[in-house]
Amino acid sequence: MSAILVTGGAGFIGANFVRHWRAYRPEDAVIVLDALTYAGNRESLDSVEGLDFVHGDIRDFDLARTLLEERGIDRIVHFAAESHVDRSIHGPDVFVETNILGTLSLLKAAKATWLDTGSGQPHRFHHISTDEVYGTLGADDAAFSETTPYAPNSPYSASKAGSDHLVRAYHHTYGLEVTTSNCSNNYGPYQYPEKLIPLFLINALHGEALPIYGDGMQRRDWLHVADHCAAIAAILERGTAGEVYNVGGGTELPNIDLVDRICAAVDAAFAADPSLASRFPDAPAARGEPTTTLKSHVEDRLGHDRRYAIDAGKIAAELGYRPIHEIDDGLTETIGWYLANEPWWRTVMAKQV
């Protein structure tokens, strides 16, 4: 039996990973450390058994070190981060404080516990990062690989790039056993409703505009969160210390195409379940109209990267990992989850700041 600390475990990907790990390794102790900011929701962990939840901040070195020592933690999976690009444009300070200084605090606590005591305890610090640290791609450029130079273009991606470098430095300078994964755009259950897919779904249900930045031709690789969790588990168990692994979904789409697929999935859901029309009477689909009538183009975001694409060949070749969710099936499943879990997203939205 091992003990694993999941930072940001009440957030979108973190909560999905906690659920994945409890099912995959039920003998392990799981400790969640989360500050429960706007994007962290204790409700996302409801019904998860055998969980030790700690309400606290990753910037609190003493708290992190105490948890590592007293709970006998030998692995950290570090999700905790400010992650919304639009928020970083309007308020970058908290992104630096959480993503860089918070990661540094955890690294210091891990070094103090696992290395400075001289115990030689086997350990692993796994850091979750993003493909946005690589910047943007041209239409014909090769996809991001683990050797692509960093070129972050937003305060968010710059703060994540800084944290990536700190994790690397703690391995090469001190010998801390670390791994990093850079993932593409995630989607799936428990995603905070300011992100594109849940935002557009909920707007569609209420008959509100679907605001598309610019021409909508920005391209992204879409990764189902369950596939991401499986990739993290593979890296934890078989990844090489000091290495970086890119994780993608294998589906690169223009945003406008993704929006059309969301609209089609909403229309299909209403056609299959007539009760949705009475639950969400303001939705165009409740009147038999296409959800695409809500599409609206708005001014593009400052510094908006044009294209991300992931070369996931390394994790496939070295760890045997490949995603299994096709985008249309994943969207149908995701939309079905939100329709079946209306109390969750209404509670989360009521706390929005």
UniProtKB/TrEMBL annotation:
Its EC number is 4.2.1.46. Its cofactor is NAD(+). Keywords: Lyase, NAD. Pfam families: GDP_Man_Dehyd. Residues 5-334 form the NAD(P)-binding domain. One of its GO terms (biological process) is nucleotide-sugar metabolic process. It catalyses: dTDP-alpha-D-glucose = dTDP-4-dehydro-6-deoxy-alpha-D-glucose + H2O. It comes from the Bacteria. GO terms for molecular function: dTDP-glucose 4,6-dehydratase activity. Gene3D superfamilies: NAD(P)-binding Rossmann-like Domain, UDP-galactose 4-epimerase, domain 1. It is an enzyme of class 4 (lyase). Belongs to the NAD(P)-dependent epimerase/dehydratase family. dTDP-glucose dehydratase subfamily. NCBIfam families: dTDP_gluc_dehyt. This is dTDP-glucose 4,6-dehydratase.
